[in-house]
Write the C-alpha cells for this entry.
Amino acid sequence: MERHRLYMANKVGSVLKPDLYNEQERQVCSFVKSSGVVDDVFDRVRPIASMNLYANDNEGWDEVEKRHRYFWSRFRTGFRCSLSITGYSQKKVKLSVIEAHKGINAAIASGKLKPAEPHVTEVMMDQLTGDVRARQRARWAAVDWKLAKELTAKDVTVVNGRIIPCIMSQHSKLCFVQFTVKIQSQQVFAAYADQAKTKLLAGHPEQVFAVEEYWVMERPFFKGLLKRSGPEGAHWRVMARLTLPSKRPDAPEQPEYEFFNTKK
C-alpha cells in the first residue's frame, strides 16, 4: 500500500513538477536556463506610404504581411501561455518589464551589475558587462540616471511573441516563451568625467529625453494543456535589447545566374 502511494505521488509529481520528479527533465532544466537566441527578431512597423502596395519594391505588401504575422504571433503565444503557465497575464509581463527596466538601468549607471542579475539572462549579463566596460574605457567617472516619469503598463506594448522548444532533448516538455516589448519612457541622463560631476561628457542633468526601446523578455515553461508554474524559480527575464533600423532595410540583390552558355 505504501509503495503504491509513493508510486502515485511520483506520477502526479512528474506531471505537475517535471523538473523535480523526472530525472531527464531535471537534467535538462538544470543545464538549459535560456534559449540563447532571439527568434523572429522584431522589425519596426512603419506607415504604408502609398496606396499602391507594389510601389518601392513591394514595400506596402511587406508591411501588410509583417503586421499580419506579428498579430498572429502575439495571439498564438499569449494563448499558449494562458494554457500552460499558472497565473499568466499580459499585465504581469508588463509589470516584470517595468521592474527590470528600472533595475537594469540603475545598475548600469552605478557600474555595479549585481542587482541586475535577477532581471537578465546569462547572455544579457555578458552584454551589460561589456557596456559598463565600454563606459569605463570612455572615461565616464560618474553617471546619473533616473526616470522623469514612472513607467506604467500603458508605456509597455507587446509587439511580438514566439515559442521556442528546447532543442537539447526531443522528449522534453521544456520550452521558452519570448515577448518583444516596446518601452516608451522619459529619462534624465548625464555622464561626467569626474566624480565631482563638474565636467559633463554626455546627456544633461536637467534635460528630459524621450526614449523608445525594444526589449525581448523570456521565460521557461512546460508545454502542455495543464497549467504549471514551470521549472523551479522560473520568471520573466530580459533576453536582449534590440537596436532597430529607422529605415526599411534594402532588399538583398539577387544574384544573376547563367543557365545556358552557348559559347564554345
In short: The two ends are 88 Å apart (CA to CA).
